[in-house]
């Protein structure tokens, strides 16, 4: 039977990228950029002397000789380098109550913020304010708090190492470790899980390792949309004959087929490269089961090989010399039945054994993963099972092998490296004291969820946001929005207007900053900044465009001004650092010796790699060995047989809470986001069908009723029991208490739900 036609819903038949992507870029650029900027902006992206793309944290190839084309990078750049402006006249024309009714896309689409603004209650409008006044109010507000731990300092992962370092220094001298950051909602399960397993909280591979891998696994990430430059790497792996295996509830087009814009032959002949050689659609939340099943298969293959007098399949030398805990892992695998694995993963045993065979048959394996792994109630457990699987065959710390978490924001990893953390270690604290002569606080601070709870409960009264859109990114708007409105002071350092800025506190201030594409001139001349990608490469980024407004300041300068305004007896020579960012890098090097010769090493195109002990098989765990860590049981998100689990996704036309447009090309959605992807049989079983208006209702007896109402059901190729909807709309269904038990990462991808027809 032909599917009923639903407005804006079609099957997408093409490969990823190709001409469709070129057209999308042309549209994006035409919509935003000043014509003069067009070529300059895009051509200097990810070049040795240009700026780092604010899109994603996938590394740049060593010798970037020509413009590396990426549709979503181009969208990110044109969104920042837009010719549109959100001026004081704009704010004069619209009350905050009126703007609150606008769509998130329309708020940001007004363009770049141009002036510092402060909220005026009498008119319900943001009015211009001088930088001096803004800083005086911020300083007074922060000094007025009885305890520095009553302020929260959020960081979104776009800011440079230099700005992030200055920020954490200011906040620690002020006296708190309350550093909620976007990483807490993203790869915290990695930052918490991997140190326990392998002693470092970062990926162990480099881009070169992909040249030597025999099998590359992609679990729970969507590179065609979120890390498009990765497709070039995967394409090369596929061409070379490496196995590429995807484990994902959805058949994401970028993981299936890719037409490379870098390769004219493919473009002109309308051909494409098949990416994944094997693709299994796991149930949402079924990854621990798949990983345990794969490990069971490897162990069984090992026994069979030994029985036939073969060498075995486990890397016994690696396990003996480098690891602890194999016995407990083997016992757990033994105790886990195939029946339970099949039920929890939604995959037949034969498929999982096939995955195990591919894994065991490959000499060197890389496993990539993203939010499909981390944003679960057991995200840390997920991450640690991936590490276990790799360790069984010594796939960590040698060429062509390793673990590869795909980080989110372009500098989220660097921000962490230079001190944005709510749990400072002794080395960081000692480094600050040694370098700056004050004693930073050592008590653990708040992560993102804890900060919102503290605000909700009135324990925190001020919030400073270095970028981002915390209230919309965070779970539970029903709790988060009123919490934000109860604050005494909110400051947003931002490039564009977003909904978080409209959650008005007693005092609300917006400070407009330079973006990465823009020239940053300080007292000693134009400055460069540095960033760290997903693979620990640190390199320089220099903006080339004229700033969007003459009133903008750099994030680094804004942080310094806040510090000066807040800390009358500061020990730090803030203005010297702002005048010359190379001095900030010297200070970073003094606090973190891993940045040895920082200023010299970033002169080299491509920069340098921060040492990663695990990739050299040095294990910074208490026992000095890598740890096999048991996750007991099989994690099933859904409480009952008939229950559904909702995962939340990014569309192809968004950057987190930034909605560029209403299309999701590869999933066949045009002009709308109010859809939910459901298996056809799950619909039928409930008397529903493709195109019906439905409500998604949280199915947790211990939680207040929550629902996302009147969304259109799309019958979609997704396993039974699994449902998908867009982030951030679906955040109404996630309570602040639904998060990974170990890392606090909100469980945005394991939401127990029911679906029902909407009331007429
Ligand atoms: N253009 C663009 N680029 C971006 C971003 C963006 O929004 N737009 N965001 C940036 C940021 S901050 C981040 S963190 C990254 C995010 O990059 P991704 O990790 O790719 O992000 P998601 O869209 O959340 O996609 C998660 C993928 O996991 C799958 N998935 C969902 N649930 C499960 C599950 O239970 N198991 C498995 N195995 N898979 C599952 C989904 O089908 C989807 O393919 O991208 C970064 N880059
Ligand atoms: N349901 C659900 N929720 C999620 C997720 C999910 O998958 N599902 N993903 C989570 C993840 S992985 C993340 S990382 C968070 C994202 O959370 P955030 O990082 O807080 O959100 P963004 O949408 O990236 O922030 C966008 C805003 O950043 C500002 N901005 C842009 N560029 C710059 C700049 O250069 N400097 C400054 N100062 N500001 C700038 C603009 O004002 C823009 O409006 O959301 C999380 N929330
Ligand atoms: Mo992220």
From TrEMBL:
Residue intervals of the Molybdopterin oxidoreductase domain: 112-505
Pfam families in the record: Molybdopterin, Molydop_binding
Cellular compartments per GO CC: membrane; oxidoreductase complex
InterPro entries assigned to the protein according to its UniProt record, in alphabetical order: Asp_de-COase-like_dom_sf (IPR009010), MopB_CT_YdeP (IPR037951), MoPterin_dinucl-bd_dom (IPR006657), Mopterin_OxRdtase (IPR006656), Mopterin_OxRdtse_a_bac (IPR010046), Prok_molybdopt-oxidoreductase (IPR050123), YdeP_MopB (IPR041953)
GO BP term, pick one: cellular respiration
Cofactor(s) essential for the protein: [4Fe-4S] cluster; Mo-bis(molybdopterin guanine dinucleotide)
Superkingdom field: Bacteria
Keyword vocabulary terms for this entry: 4Fe-4S, Iron, Iron-sulfur, Metal-binding, Molybdenum, Oxidoreductase
MF (Gene Ontology): 4 iron, 4 sulfur cluster binding; formate dehydrogenase (NAD+) activity; molybdenum ion binding; molybdopterin cofactor binding
Residue span, Molybdopterin dinucleotide-binding domain: 644-751
Chain segments annotated as transmembrane: none
Gene3D superfamilies: 2.40.40.20, 3.40.50.740, Dimethylsulfoxide Reductase, domain 2
Entry-linked NCBIfam families: Fdhalpha-like
Annotated family: Belongs to the prokaryotic molybdopterin-containing oxidoreductase family.
Protein name, per record: CbbBc protein
Organism: Tardiphaga robiniae
């Amino acid at each position: 039977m032909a599917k009923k036609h639903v407005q804006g819903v079609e099957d997408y038949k093409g490969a990823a990228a190709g001409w469709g992507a070129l057209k999308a870029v042309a549209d994006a650029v035409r919509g935003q950029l000043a014509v003069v900027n067009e070529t300059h902006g895009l051509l200097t992206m990810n070049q040795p002397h240009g700026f780092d793309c604010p899109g994603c944290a996938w590394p740049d190839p060593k010798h970037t000789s020509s413009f590396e084309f990426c549709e979503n990078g181009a969208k990110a750049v044109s969104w920042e380098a837009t010719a549109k402006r959100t001026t004081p006249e704009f704010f004069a024309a619209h009350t905050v109550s009126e703007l609150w009714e606008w769509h998130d896309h329309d708020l940001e689409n007004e363009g770049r913020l141009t002036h510092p603004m402060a909220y005026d209650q009498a008119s319900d409008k943001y009015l211009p304010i001088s930088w001096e006044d803004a800083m005086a109010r911020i300083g007074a507000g922060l000094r007025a708090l009885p305890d520095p731990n009553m302020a929260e300092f959020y960081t979104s992962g776009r800011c440079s190492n230099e700005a992030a370092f200055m920020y954490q220094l200011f906040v620690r001298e002020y006296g708190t470790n309350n550093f909620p950051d976007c990483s807490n909602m993203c790869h915290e399960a990695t930052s918490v899980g991997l140190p326990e397993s392998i002693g470092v909280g970062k990926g162990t591979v480099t881009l070169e390792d992909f040249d030597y891998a025999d099998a590359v696994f992609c679990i729970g990430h969507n590179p065609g949309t979120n890390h498009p430059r990765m497709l070039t790497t995967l394409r090369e792996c596929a061409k070379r004959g490496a196995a590429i295996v995807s484990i994902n509830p959805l058949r994401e087009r970028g993981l299936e087929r890719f037409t490379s814009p870098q390769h004219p032959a493919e473009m002109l002949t309308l051909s494409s490269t098949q990416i994944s050689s094997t693709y299994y659609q796991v149930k949402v939340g079924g990854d621990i089961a798949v990983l345990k099943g794969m490990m069971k298969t490897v162990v069984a293959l090992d026994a069979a090989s030994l029985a036939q007098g073969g060498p075995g399949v486990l890397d016994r030398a690696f396990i003996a010399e480098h690891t602890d805990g194999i016995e407990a892992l083997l016992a757990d695998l033994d105790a886990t039945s195939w029946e339970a694995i099949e039920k929890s993963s939604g995959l037949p045993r034969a498929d999982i054994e096939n995955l195990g065979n591919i894994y065991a048959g490959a000499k060197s394996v890389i496993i990539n993963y993203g939010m499909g792994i981390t944003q679960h109630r057991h995200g840390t457990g997920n991450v640690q099972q991936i590490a276990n699987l790799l360790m069984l065959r010594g796939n960590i710390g040698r060429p062509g092998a390793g673990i590869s978490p795909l980080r989110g924001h372009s500098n989220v990893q660097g921000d962490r490296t230079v001190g944005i953390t709510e749990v400072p270690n002794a080395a960081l604290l000692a480094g600050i004291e040694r370098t700056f002569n004050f004693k930073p606080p050592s008590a653990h601070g708040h992560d993102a969820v804890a900060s919102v709870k503290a605000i909700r409960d009135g324990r925190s009264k001020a919030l400073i946001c270095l970028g981002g859109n915390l209230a919309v990114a965070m779970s539970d708007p029903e709790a988060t929005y009123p919490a934000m409105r109860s604050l005494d002071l909110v400051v947003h350092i931002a490039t564009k207007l977003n909904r978080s800025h409209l959650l008005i506190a007693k005092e609300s201030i917006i400070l407009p900053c330079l973006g990465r594409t823009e020239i940053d001139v300080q007292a000693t001349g134009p400055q460069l900044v540095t960033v760290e990608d997903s693979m620990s490469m640190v390199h320089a980024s220099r903006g080339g465009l004229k700033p969007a407004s003459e009133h903008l300041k750099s994030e680094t300068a804004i942080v310094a001004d806040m510090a000066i305004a807040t800390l009358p007896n500061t020990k730090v020579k803030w203005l010297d650092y702002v005048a010359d960012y190379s001095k900030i890098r010297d200070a970073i090097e003094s606090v973190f010796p891993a940045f040895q010769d920082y200023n010299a090493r970033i002169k080299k195109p491509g920069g340098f790699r921060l040492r990663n002990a695990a990739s050299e098989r040095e294990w910074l765990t208490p026992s000095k060995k890598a740890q096999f860590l048991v996750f007991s049981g099989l994690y099933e998100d859904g409480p009952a047989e008939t229950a559904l689990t909702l995962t939340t996704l990014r569309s192809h036309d968004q950057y987190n809470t930034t909605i560029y447009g209403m299309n999701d090309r590869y999933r066949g959605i045009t002009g709308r986001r109010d859809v939910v992807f459901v298996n056809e049989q799950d619909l039928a079983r409930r008397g529903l069908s493709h195109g019906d208006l439905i409500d998604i209702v949280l199915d947790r007896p211990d939680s207040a009723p929550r629902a996302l109402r009147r969304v259109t059901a799309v019958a979609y190729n997704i396993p039974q029991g699994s449902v998908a909807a867009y982030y951030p709309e679906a955040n109404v269904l996630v309570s602040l208490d639904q998060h990974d038990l170990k890392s606090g990462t909100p469980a945005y991808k394991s939401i127990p739900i029911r679906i029902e027809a909407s009331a007429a």
